[in-house]
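Justification of computing resources. Each target in the renewal requires a structure prediction run like the one illustrated here; the chain below, 248 residues long, is used simply to show the kind of job we budget for.
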Amino acid sequence: MPVWLLCSMALALLLSAAAWRAERARQRRGRTTRWPWLAAIAASVILPLAWLPGVLKAMPAEQAQLKLGWFVLSSGMLLMLALRSIWLLSHQRRWQKTSLLGTPVYLSGGIGPCVAGLLRPRIVMPVWLQLIPPQQQALLLAHAQCRLAARDPQLLALAYALIVIMPWNLPLWWQLHRLRFAIEVDCDARMLAHGHALRDYATVLRRHGQYYSGLTGASPIVLNDPRALRRRRHLMARFTRDRAANLL
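Resulting structure tokens:
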């Protein structure tokens, strides 16, 4: 079984490299970039599982502790996700349903801006949002609506569900990190394609994205990584230049 574990991680690394190249190619063509990473996560989990029954059958009895460790890791991650979901549900009772610029939202004391929930995702905004200029409010709402339209919470939930099966596979976690970044980049592209100004949108990301409180099943407007934000701004600038060149 140790050989199978190493082969599984090696396969995940190869699929990560393929997804990286596919992401770059799709960026140059102005295409969405999330799908190569989701496909890499799915293949990294499903393909090794096809070999697993034979591996378990041939595994010596003294290596049964590996199965126990696997079970403990998966169960622990599943428990953590369940506890975070319970925590989210407990906070929802204190959210205030209201309307912001004609859009139904939930106001929270310390969560947001984000889209939270799985079966019925909803827009969650912090109470301080009512104090910022309406133009910035509109950008945050438009971003959240892009999240809902693209089904980002469900996509992330699917990725987490796959990783629960093999939480020991470290390359899977890097693939998840890249998937989350690709989701952000795809949403940026949709915002700019809808006609929102790059400078205004980047300002909103820089000023208001850091207030998000992390939730499993929730999609923030920005990952808490300055380097990722700089990379997103670079990609947005290139997207804007490409659009302008195509109009000439």
